[in-house]
Amino acid sequence: MNERQMQFRVGVVVFATMIVGGLLASLNGPLPTGWLPWGRAKYQIGIQVAEAPGVDTNTPVRKNGILIGRVKSIEDKDGGVLLKADIDGNRPLFADNEPHIRTTVLGDATIDFLSRRPAPGAQPVAGGTIFQGRVDPNPFDSLGQLGDLKEQFSNASRSLSDAGDEVAKLAKRVNSALGDETGETQGRVTRLLDSTEVAMTQFAATMKSFNEIIGDVPLAGQPPGAQPPGAQPPADGQQLRQRIRQGLNELPDAIHEFRVTMQESRTVLQSADKNLKNLEGFTEPLRQKGGDIAESLLKVVNGLDRLVEDFGSVARALNSREGTIGKLIHDPRVYNDLNQLMFNVNDVLNRIAELTFNLKPVVHDARIFMDKVSTEPGRIISGAIDPSNRK
Fold this sequence. Notes:
Layout: H1 3-28, E1 42-49, E2 60-63, E3 66-77, E4 80-88, E5 98-103, E6 109-114, E7 130-132, E8 134-135, H2 139-144, H3 146-178, H4 188-214, H5 237-288, H6 290-319, H7 324-330, H8 332-375, H9 377-385
Parallel strand pairs: 1-7, 2-6, 5-8
Antiparallel strand pairs: 1-4, 2-3, 3-4, 5-6
């Protein structure tokens, strides 16, 4: 093999290596491969996040750990960041896939889509779809929070110490309430139980006495055990029981009468309310014209005063012997003269009555004459001319 052939072969190997390296770089690197005949088609999506730490162009986008695309551009929006990524056409994404921005310890960021089993019949998203992403915590942030955790642990330990002190105080209170183990010191609970026992004993004795008053009396022939041992019936216990039972029997009637009384009282109150409303309608005009009414009443009172004064003047005139009425009352001669005058008036009236009675025939004849004159005036004229025609 000569030198020329060696150079040719080396050149072919170098050229082939360059071609293969370029193809591998274009297939696995960030360079676009759509222009290649065998290049993979891509579609673009958007990822809306509040912040994007460590994300830059060509940041890998993965799904279930598999590289499916890279970040194409980053846009700063109001209230967040919009990441646009080119996704391989053979890597479908669904609407329920959620992108997470994760930062490694070295500060590199990746975008991972968490996939879920798609619903039956679900269709992959089309290009231009915008996903709402989330930013996972940075490991260094977790390490930075250890200081806060230390302070929190310190606070928790102090709280545990305070809680232990409170538990000790509570145990002390419980011991004081229940008493110590030796039994030398009696606790409040024990004293309370003893007092309760005494109170229950007294209550039982009270109920026993109450039962002796209102309970049934053992009939004749019953065994002595029917009555509590040592129980002594009080004086007139049977009569008292009968009265109490009679009162209990009459209680429903009393309640009924009370209800009837309340209904009647309600009716009376309604009538009183109605009368008060009517009276209010009467007194309202009086209130509105109270000044005029008071002025009228003052005028009436003044008139009554003047009337009383006039009556006083009349009474004084009557009591006086100088006036006519006073003389009539006090002087008997005036009375006698007045009596004689009345007698004369009666006599004159009697005579007038007799004269009227005597004039009745004359008036009758005059009426007949006037009637004939009005009906036959010719007879009067002929009678005056020829006296023979008079009848």
